[in-house]
Amino acid sequence: MQNDVLSYTELVRWGVISAANIGVRAVSPAIHASSNGRLVAVGSRDPQRAAELYAFAPHVRIYGDYVSVINDPDIDAVYIPLPNSLHAEWTIRALEAGKHVLCEKPLATTVEEGKKMLEAARANKVLLMEAFMYRFHPQVVWALEQIKAGVIGSVKLVRASFSFDIRGRSTNVRLRPELAGGSLMDIGCYPLNLCRAIYGHPPRTVAARVYAPRPGAVDMAMNAVLDFGEGRFGLIDSSFELARRQMAEIVGDEGSITIPVPFTPGDHAVAVFVTKGGNMNEQSFTRVDQYRLEVEHFANCIRTGQEPEMSLNETLENLATIEAIYQAAGHDWPIL
């Protein structure tokens, strides 16, 4: 642990709601290792299993419910990795209890839910941020800086993909319509978020197709064309039926930037490639924990009062685009 240099009251004290896989594998260990945070409590419907999963943090409090985490007076911030359909309910309950909230993406099932969450954060004077960890990785930060500096000229096209095959995992929460699953909601939101980050505003119009194997099922695949106006486009796709892959290509009128593994680079060094004037240059990045960078950023915002990098206005615009994609594809949403 790196946070011993700060006093207990200076550290942001975290609670985690549920023993969801992303929390156990990535975010909770990141909080535990962070320089400005402390993992205090976890709420789970199966406290014995949670205690086993959280053995890496032997002093963490294990509660058998979520409400106890929210009501714990020692907790400053709550991380919520629940299924999508439960984000709004538990985020609002935590906000109303005076806790800052880092909620997994997508923040909500609908724009209407997202607005209620934003209103609850403002009414209770606490921070709320959508957990897009990839935005804190140095490779993405650097790429966005190059784009802003005009290194590849005016960006006209962004192509981004994210897929993996889960057809053999029928009980996976991503495939359950009552939990607001689906490829767009789970992984297609990453390419969408990247397009919005590059262009700085939501698309004017969208055209899209999704594949759902039967009526009432979640989308297993999504393809969309996003029109950002003035000849600027985004081409994004996601799938639960294709081999594991991800990529992003940003094309300007003077060159291009390629990020081979933009969203989940894992425990590996990575590189970004800039092609310009017939030459390709490589920018390398050593391994980092992008989840730790995310939670440290949010904790720093809590202690300093600065606004989080992921603004709620951006989040609401992306939620609106998710809805627009489903509507353009003729896919009923939400399926609840």
From TrEMBL:
Limits of the GFO/IDH/MocA-like oxidoreductase domain: 144-257
Keyword Oxidoreductase in annotation: yes
GO function terms (MF aspect): nucleotide binding; oxidoreductase activity
Record key words, sorted: Oxidoreductase
Claim: Oxidoreductase is one of the keywords in the record: yes
UniProt cross-references to InterPro entries, sorted A to Z: Gfo/Idh/MocA-like_OxRdtase_N, Gfo/Idh/MocA_domain, GFO_IDH_MocA-like_dom, NAD(P)-bd_dom_sf
Stretches assigned to the Gfo/Idh/MocA-like oxidoreductase N-terminal domain: 13-131
Family according to the record: Belongs to the Gfo/Idh/MocA family.
Protein name per UniProt: Gfo/Idh/MocA family oxidoreductase
Top-level taxonomy: Bacteria, Bacillati, Chloroflexota, Ktedonobacteria, Ktedonobacterales
